[in-house]
Sequence to fold (324 residues):
Amino acid sequence: MVPVEGLFEAHIAVRDIERSIGFYRDVVGLELGIAQLERPAAFFWVGGRGKSMLGMFTSGSWPIKTMQHHVSFQVRLEDILVAPQRLRSAGITPHGRPPLGGRGEPIDEPIVFAWMPAASVFFDDPDGNLLEYICMLPEAPRPEVGVVSWSEWKGVHRNRPCAPGSNGVTPIQRLFEAHISIRNLERSVAFYRDVVGLEVGINQLQSEVGMGGALLWVGGRGRSMLGVFSLGATWPLTIMQHHVAFQVKLEDVLAAPRELRSASLTPLGGQREAIDEPIVFAWMPAASVFFDDPDGNLLEYICMLPEPPQPESGLLPWSEWQRS
Fold:
């Protein structure tokens, strides 16, 4: 199939688009890419323009009301150009930009979001989650062009250099993790492993907290991660709307509890307990700090650690990990 390099985009649901724009811009420190108040929706660059992206939509609006989740995978340009043919050969229909309230038309070449700009191909997983292959393009953004086919884009682009920007509580490098809901865990693990080509990191049919899901590495171990969880029956889907993890440096995840409290936010551990130091997922291993956005979406700062995985250690505080 199409070689996936990393996790590029995830979506969350919000209640007040202007409030959330302020939170993710001024507290989380993301760069606003485009605000579409008529939808209403907004898209933020994560780690700078072109690195990864977070989309937000008000509850009940498209695409929240027409799909369960949306996840975008970063791929190379040469692979996105052949993605429609490769998807069809796997019995999957490639399609263009989904219209409000439905799915896009079948396509034989990528579409281009000119405001980014990026080439894109959409397709569905077995549960109707909307997946996307995407590749940033080197040309200058052309927001006035809208959404065009690849062949149309090649006739209108112009080159111009672009530079990322960042600010906020904790410096974010890129998007690390997103979660989706599924109906059949074994079917979905097979789809994301064998069709999308992701590596299974951990498969938990059941745990003491009723997790019932799997985590898959995107672009190789430690690069980014996709979680799939049984619909409506397991943690974390019963306690939050969406989950998004942001990759940060180790020194920043260590300082995150203090920085979050200074912004009047509560740093959380793996069971949503208040914490003063990061927790460590020993099976990865990675240091992590959770916190909520204004709508209860569960956000996370995370940093992969250089030590070998210790799955038998489970979940433990940073100070215990340091002693182990």
Notes: Confidence is low (pLDDT under 50) at residues 159-168. The first strand starts at residue 6 and ends at 14. The chain is about 20% helix and 30% strand.
